[in-house]
Design brief:
Elements: E1 3-4, E2 8-12, E3 17-22, H1 33-47, E4 54-59, H2 70-77, H3 81-99, E5 105-109, E6 112-114, H4 116-122, E7 126-129, E8 134-136, H5 150-158, H6 160-169, E9 172-174, H7 175-181, E10 186-187, H8 193-202, H9 209-217, H10 224-242, H11 247-259, H12 264-279, H13 282-304, E11 313-317, H14 321-332, E12 336-340, H15 344-363, H16 369-377, E13 379-382, E14 393-396, H17 402-413, E15 421-424, H18 431-435, E16 444-449, E17 458-463, H19 469-481, E18 485-490, H20 497-513, H21 518-529, H22 535-542, H23 544-557, H24 559-562, H25 569-575, E19 588-592, E20 598-602, H26 604-611, H27 622-642, H28 649-660, H29 669-676, H30 678-687, H31 699-707
Parallel strand pairs: 3-4, 4-5, 5-7, 6-8, 7-10, 11-12, 11-14, 12-13, 14-15, 15-16, 17-18
Antiparallel strand pairs: 1-2, 2-3, 8-9, 16-17, 19-20
Organism: Motilimonas pumila
Family: In the N-terminal section; belongs to the enoyl-CoA hydratase/isomerase family. In the central section; belongs to the 3-hydroxyacyl-CoA dehydrogenase family.
Pfam families: 3HCDH (PF00725), 3HCDH_N (PF02737), ECH_1 (PF00378)
Length: 712
């Protein structure tokens, strides 16, 4: 033993080979301050060690290194530019000292090797892993770029084109792809990795370790023409894909292009400059905030479900698109699912939905035909209640009608065990109202999935007035099993996500009434604010009939703020039976494209219908259009926080990013509010106060602004 700390051990092996084994006392290995310091000290010992012939980097946990500790490093982003740059330089000196050791080096890996962990192994001469490897540089997903040499070493190792793809997408890659691209030198069975590493070090001269190292420290081998073509093409493609709101991928391309003709140390200085610039952007703060909120959500759910049993048997009532989607999700996560309906045609639709989703996985190469068959076999379609009697959890997913839901729930309760949990997949109907029909309301809660179920990560778990804590814990545990991010909210009409969405829709209706073109509104909210769909398009996708009925529920629940205006555009389209995508026409017309997906185009009929009721000559600024929509949404989020419908600003932000597609680069509604400033937001709201109660900011916000108290 040459050196030991709480994060790693340095050992002397046979034949002059040394080994640094990462082993954090915590649950995972990560490059926190202690690990970096220990790593630096271990490398300093090796630099003075006589008889050293090679170095192995290894790990004693499932994952080699999950990356940097973002909780610890985030405060450094707030440092003055010079101090942040100096910190990065010092960290890079550690990795340089690894790369500059006078002996060959090899990394032995498995599990996740991400971010700083990936940049660390790029500094060694060889890399081997077992088949469990997942390696990558995900920094652009946090609004930054590699800062520990990743943008310098990776293109010199695997070529500029491959490196650009790795860095600008932020994806992690499995062992086979890493081997194909040249990041890995070999894939070895777990039990043979160490032996293989020793053998490679012994053969390092034949394998050309010094030539490999020299190539990583030299300029890229690209002619001027090759460099221009490579980086110009990448810039255009990345800019088109990332869009104007996400500067990190384009900045990474620029940094790599500027550094292409430089040596390692010169190139690292370029990377340093661009990293510092990105770390200071609101986008980086927002995306890091989402990551931290997500981690907080996962930790809360883990604590909440510490004593919960895993669900083995699940039943879904209702075999429509939602029911079929939930059944598919359960079966794909290896749960046995009964899908019950009263109509054979509905069961066929539900099974077809599951089969369609599975076939898409096959086309993407993520599933085999055999696995498709196994997954479908886990779904049992049924027409009778006998099939659900042994289910641990039963999810009702029938039509969004309180009378029908209450009837189905009451019938189901009579056929399941007293310990079984009954759940309603409702989007707006209060759980307390539905519970009135039940004998065991303590075993009942809400579980609001978002459509499409297989793609949307959020599930709202709604605690009713009489729901037991054990029931909530069981449903949260189920949501995690289904691969979802559960947010526990308290009961009210619309719960959290839909409750704050409808003021946004009502703001849209006021813009239409004022004579603003809905297509222009959509362009502003998509291209400038960053929503994936503008409000008119979103209404068409949700279904204008669904929005009409849900709006009535919201108006009943919040009569002061959410009474719809006379001749609301939502009501007009509903009465004209223009329901959006499901009917082929709403604000837009829809036809199936070459891939069978609904594509929208201009609808003259929509403009004619609106012209019968509203003028169309309004000229509002784009900023005013944004305020019409976002002020009511943010105000309602604040009301939900005041009423403790949602527990924290962090959960509110993550719920709207995951559930509605709130622009991630803005961090969520509260992060956006805090970024523009509480006083500025209050001024925006006050300027629109004549529009009604939806635009009145809660008193709590004025108090917070006066005291200078932030939400985060």
């Amino acid at each position: 033993m040459l050196y030991q700390s709480d994060t790693l051990t340095l050992m002397q092996l046979d034949d002059g080979i040394a080994e640094i084994r990462f082993g954090n006392l915590g649950s995972v290995n990560k490059f926190d301050r202690c690990t970096l310091v220990s790593f630096q000290q271990a490398l300093a010992i090796l630099q003075d060690l006589s008889g050293l012939t090679g170095l192995i980097l290894s790990h004693n946990k499932k994952d080699f290194m999950v990356g940097a500790d973002i909780n610890e490093f985030l405060p450094k982003f707030a440092l003055p530019d010079e101090e942040l740059s100096q910190w990065l330089h010092q960290a890079n000196q550690i990795f340089n000292s690894l790369e500059d050791l006078p002996v060959p080096t090899i990394s032995v890996m498995g599990g996740f090797v991400l971010g700083g962990g990936c940049e660390c192994v790029l500094a060694t001469d060889f890399r081997i892993s077992d088949s469990s490897l997942k390696i990558g540089l995900p920094e652009v997903k946090l609004g930054i770029m590699p800062g520990f040499g990743g943008s310098v070493r990776l293109p010199r190792l695997i070529g500029a084109d491959n490196a650009l793809m790795w860095i600008t997408t932020g994806k992690h890659h499995h062992a086979e792809q890493a081997l194909k691209d040249g990041v890995l030198d070999a894939i070895v069975a777990t039990e043979h990795r160490h032996q293989a590493a020793v053998k490679m070090l012994q053969q390092a001269n034949q394998l050309g370790w010094q030539q490999r190292r020299a190539a990583k420290k030299a300029p890229l081998c690209l002619s001027n023409i090759e460099a221009t073509m490579c980086f110009s093409t990448a810039n255009a493609m990345v800019a088109a894909k990332a869009g104007p709101h996400y500067p990190a991928p384009v900045t990474a391309v620029t940094a790599m292009q500027q550094a292409a003709g430089m040596s390692r140390d010169e190139a690292l200085a370029i990377e340093n400059q661009h990293f510092v610039r990105l770390a200071k952007t609101h986008v980086a703060r927002a995306l890091v905030g989402i990551y931290l909120n997500d981690q907080q959500l996962k930790q809360s759910a883990k604590k909440l479900t510490a004593n919960s049993q895993k669900v083995q048997s699940l039943a879904v009532l209702g075999a429509g698109i939602m029911g079929g989607g939930i059944a598919y999700q359960g079966a794909s996560k290896r749960l046995n699912v009964v899908m019950k309906d009263i109509q054979p045609d509905a069961l066929h639709l539900g099974m077809s939905e599951a089969n369609t989703l599975l076939n898409k996985q096959i086309k993407r190469g993520k599933l085999t035909s055999h696995q498709l068959g196994e997954t479908l076999a886990r779904i049992t379609p049924s027409l009778n209640y006998d099939s659900v009697k042994n289910a641990q959890v039963v999810i009702e997913a029938v039509v969004e009608n309180p009378k029908i839901k209450a009837q189905v729930l009451a019938e189901t309760e009579q056929h399941i065990g007293v310990d079984s949990v009954l759940v309603s997949n409702t989007s707006t109907i209060p759980i307390g109202l539905l519970a009135q029909s039940l004998a065991r309301p303590e075993q009942f809660c809400g579980m609001h999935f978002f459509n499409p179920v297989h793609r949307m990560p959020l599930v709202e778990v709604i605690r009713g007035p009489e729901t037991s804590q054990a029931c909530v814990e069981q449903v949260v545990a189920l949501a995690i099993q289904l691969g979802k991010s559960p947010v526990v909210v308290n009961d009210c009409p619309g719960f959290f996500v839909n409750r704050v969405l409808f003021p946004y829709f009502f703001g849209f209706a006021r813009l239409i009434a004022a004579g603003v073109d809905f297509a222009h509104i959509d362009r502003v909210m998509e291209q400038q604010f960053g929503w994936p769909m503008g409000p008119a398009y979103l209404l068409d996708v949700v279904g204008i009939d669904t929005a009409h009925h849900a709006g009535a529920v919201m108006a009943q629940g919040y009569p002061t703020r959410m009474q719809p205006q006379q001749d609301s555009c939502i009501d007009l389209f509903f009465e004209a039976q223009k329901y959006g995508q499901k009917s082929g026409e709403g604000f837009y017309q829809y036809h199936l494209d070459s891939k069978g997906r609904p594509a929208k185009k201009r609808s003259d009929a929509a403009y004619e219908l609106l012209a019968q009721h509203f003028s169309s000559d309004a000229s509002l600024s784009d900023d005013t259009i944004i305020d019409y929509l976002m002020v009511p949404l943010v105000n309602e989020v604040l009301h939900c926080l005041d009423e403790q419908i949602v527990a924290s600003a962090a959960e509110a932000d993550i719920a709207l990013v995951y559930g509605l597609g709130f622009p991630p680069f803005r961090g969520g509604p509260i992060a956006w509010l805090q970024h523009i400033g509480l006083d500025q937001f209050i001024a925006k709201a006050d300027a629109l106060a004549a529009l009604g109660p939806l635009y009145q900011v809660p008193a709590s916000l004025r108090e917070r602004a006066a005291s200078g108290t932030d939400f985060y």
